């Protein structure tokens, strides 16, 4: 929200009060409380008839500093509030002298000037990060007597800002106005399904504004050298998040707001849906599934979209008897084919649903201030909204899901949750303005808890559309309603990369676009992108998405990339484990892996999949692509061609290839099964070694399907000698030397010719292979 009229003036009728002079500082074991007058106090009378602002400075975790501003403290505290995870027993270091107070948390320090103009400066591991100086912090009253708190933090000359949720606008947020307010606006506007009041800076720090209500950001817009954020009310709380690297910053932020759960390995396979408004029954579903099998297209999850329930009755959680007369038997038949089952739900109860009267009678639906059930006709006729602040309503909702899981359902697509009204009353008295964004957290949490309760840890996953800060704990999320165009494919990538820099580890999208039907060209290009994403789903609006309805080549493309993803699962699942433990996204903006390379800072049409694979999707019907490669000698995994880094490349690709590059000094774990994502990764695994430099080493972890580390393979090169160890390997394993066709000597295994490099089969029981390269 803008409060100024240009740089010099404030808007007419607006009053700003800034901290100017420190009046006292109170230290405690947990932090510091500072009172600042909004005028220079020269005589005792200057203490009268003016605000006194209070700021509390503390540190809930290492490398995190909390700043809380308060004007009037008497306002009743009403939730909801983001759930935070402080570090038990952690306390900041506090030092003070005549001029400066210093509060230090790990490598992050705050220096507050005790004399002269107001100034707070944050230093992150010895480097200035950001700060707030004279007339930047403000308590504001508008001409209509509304109160706001505003902060303006320094923005460096070449500094770039990322994140703020899944945003489809330009990837670099500088120059944008962003309101944190969940809306159902598709992927082609500034509205967003997943709004997160956290941004990441290219200078190596993050800012989390701890307010679930609307937060207004002005990023180099109202003031071009500042990032401004404001909230309504009498207080403002934000956290500065530091770390030695950008990855550390994301790790520290997700430690504060919650790490992503690890989705089950089967969820990384290919999903096929009925699509939205199509006609289908069990015969139709079986025709799709059999058609996939007949064409050697591995399929792993089948999803039933909205019309598995009877029209006008969403949600009643009952299979439409006219279409699915024996759902339990049908689900068993599908699961006997090795498929997992997902069904669509939302948190709305239509008036025609038999559950509406029950929910109304028992007080399970959100009410209006007059005590009536809140209703409207947008989406479902007369629908009400489940009140997840009522524990009994939560259990009521969960019980219906438990029954579906008992039938054979494995996961739920938790659609909607964005259009949440603010003129309502919640069971627990929650502030409806705060609940607008936070509602989705309670909704997805309830569904995730059912799946974890019924299926076990690391077996629960959602397909969720809406989210806010902390929502990363309940994966997976997908990108909402995109269109069947190249432009929409590009905006989809921007949204996913922005969400990944907002703490979310797993993300998907509707392959070939949700709205309309893509031409075969776009379908095939999007398939390659979709199967090189965290999660991969074929879904649309008014038409089926099976590939043979596009053309026969689409079948071949889908087969190639589905099998490729299954083969890459040992590596990809390792990246998934890293996402759940470190808070890093599987799909990573280039800046996250290469922050020292300024060319990567604005790249949003390519990404890293894990830390070793670079993916550059193709957005043109002529197959041309331009992409940037960081320093080093990279290898196209699909063609075996090497690519020199430190520059841009322009290429032309058919539908079977795209730039999928392996970073130098990589030991890539590749599985022996290209038919499904959930198999014993250690059995027959091949470690593929790429461009290992003299004196360098490379590692590749191998995990169980439960996310437990089995062992870590390592390759070390000294001169022409390469030693690869797999200590702990109890099953057969292999080594492939990419780009190397022969060796002068091999110990610990037998060699065989390979298409893209020398293949070595480890001898039975061997955990060590030594290669002597030919001169």
Automatic annotation (TrEMBL):
Domain Glycoside hydrolase family 31 N-terminal: 55-218
InterPro entries found in the cross-reference section: Alpha-glycosidase_related (IPR050985), Gal_mutarotase_sf_dom (IPR011013), GH (IPR017853), Glyco_hydro_31_C (IPR048395), Glyco_hydro_31_N_dom (IPR025887), Glyco_hydro_31_TIM (IPR000322), Glyco_hydro_b (IPR013780)
EC number from the UniProt entry: 3.2.1.177
GO BP term, pick one: carbohydrate metabolic process
All copies of domain Glycoside hydrolase family 31 TIM barrel, residue ranges: 260-573
Family: Belongs to the glycosyl hydrolase 31 family.
Record protein name field: alpha-D-xyloside xylohydrolase
């Amino acid at each position: 929200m803008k409060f100024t009229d240009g740089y010099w003036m404030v808007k007419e009728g607006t009053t700003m009060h800034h901290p100017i002079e420190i009046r006292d500082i109170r230290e405690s074991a947990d932090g510091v409380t500072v009172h600042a007058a909004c005028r220079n106090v020269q005589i005792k009378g200057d203490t009268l008839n003016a605000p006194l602002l209070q700021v509390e400075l503390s540190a809930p975790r290492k490398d995190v500093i909390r700043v809380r501003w308060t004007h009037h403290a008497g306002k009743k505290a009403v939730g909801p509030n983001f759930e935070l995870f402080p570090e038990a027993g952690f306390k900041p270091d506090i030092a003070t002298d005549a001029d400066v107070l210093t509060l230090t948390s790990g490598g992050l320090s705050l220096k507050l000037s005790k004399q002269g103009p107001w100034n707070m400066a944050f230093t992150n591991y010895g480097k200035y990060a950001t700060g707030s100086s004279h007339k930047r912090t403000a308590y504001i009253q508008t001409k209509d007597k509304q109160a706001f708190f505003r902060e303006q933090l320094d923005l460096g000359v070449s500094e770039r800002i990322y994140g703020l949720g899944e945003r489809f606008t330009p990837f670099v947020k500088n120059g944008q106005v962003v309101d944190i307010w969940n809306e159902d606006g598709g992927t082609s506007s500034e509205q967003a399904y997943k709004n997160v009041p956290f941004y990441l800076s290219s200078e190596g720090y993050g800012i989390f504004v701890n307010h679930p209500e609307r937060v207004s950001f002005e990023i180099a817009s109202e003031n071009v050298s500042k990032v401004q954020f404001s909230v309504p009310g009498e207080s403002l709380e934000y956290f500065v998040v530091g770390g030695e690297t950008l990855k550390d910053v994301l790790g520290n932020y997700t430690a504060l707001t919650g790490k992503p759960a690890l989705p089950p390995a089967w969820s990384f396979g290919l999903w096929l849906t009925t699509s939205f408004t199509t006609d289908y029954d069990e015969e139709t579903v079986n025709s799709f599934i059999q058609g996939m099998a007949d064409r050697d297209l591995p399929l792993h999850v089948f999803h039933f979209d909205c019309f598995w329930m009877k029209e006008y009755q969403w949600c009643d959680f009952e299979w439409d008897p006219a279409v699915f007369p024996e759902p339990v038997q049908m689900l068993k038949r599908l699961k006997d084919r090795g498929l997992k089952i997902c069904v669509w739900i939302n948190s709305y109860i239509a008036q025609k649903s038999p559950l509406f009267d029950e929910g109304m009678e028992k007080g399970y639906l959100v009410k209006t201030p007059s005590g009536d059930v809140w209703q409207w006709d947008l989406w479902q006729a007369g629908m009400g909204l489940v009140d997840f602040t009522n524990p009994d309503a939560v259990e009521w909702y969960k019980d219906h899901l438990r029954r579906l899981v008992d039938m054979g359902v494995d996961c739920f697509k938790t659609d909607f949750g964005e259009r949440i009204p603010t003129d309502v009353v919640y069971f627990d008295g929650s502030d409806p303005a705060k609940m607008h964004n936070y509602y989705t957290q309670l909704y997805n949490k309830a569904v995730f808890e059912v799946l974890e309760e019924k299926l076990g840890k690391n077996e629960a996953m959602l397909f969720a559309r809406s989210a806010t800060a902390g929502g990363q704990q309940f994966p997976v999320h997908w990108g909402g309603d995109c269109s069947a165009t190249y432009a929409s494919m590009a905006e989809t990538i921007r949204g996913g990369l922005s969400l990944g820099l907002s703490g979310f580890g797993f993300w998907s999208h509707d392959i070939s676009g949700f709205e309309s039907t893509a031409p075969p060209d776009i379908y095939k290009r999007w398939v390659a992108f979709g199967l090189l994403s965290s999660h991969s789903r074929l879904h649309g609006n008014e038409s089926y998405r099976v590939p043979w309805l596009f053309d026969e080549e689409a079948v071949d493309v889908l087969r190639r990339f589905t099998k490729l993803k299954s083969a890459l699962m040992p590596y990809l699942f390792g990246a998934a484990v890293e996402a759940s433990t470190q808070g890093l996204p599987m799909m990573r903006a280039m800046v996250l892996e290469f922050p020292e390379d300024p060319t990567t800072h604005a790249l949003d049409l390519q990404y890293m999949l894990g830390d070793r694979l670079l993916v550059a999707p193709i957005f043109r019907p002529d197959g041309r692509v331009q992409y940037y490669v960081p320093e080093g000698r990279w290898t196209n995994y699909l063609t075996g061609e090497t690519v020199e880094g430190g520059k841009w490349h322009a290429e032309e690709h058919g539908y079977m290839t795209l730039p999928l590059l392996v970073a130098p000094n990589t030991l890539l774990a590749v599985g022996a099964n290209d038919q499904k994502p959930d198999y014993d990764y250690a059995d027959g695994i091949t470690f593929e070694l790429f461009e290992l430099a003299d004196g360098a080493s490379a590692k590749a972890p191998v995990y169980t399907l439960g996310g437990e580390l089995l062992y870590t393979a390592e390759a070390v090169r000294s001169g022409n000698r390469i030693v690869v160890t797999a200590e702990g390997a109890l099953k057969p394993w292999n080594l492939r030397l990419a780009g190397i066709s022969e060796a002068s000597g091999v110990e610990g295994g037998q060699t065989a010719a390979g298409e893209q490099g020398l293949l070595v089969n480890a001898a039975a029981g061997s955990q060590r292979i030594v290669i002597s390269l030919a001169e």
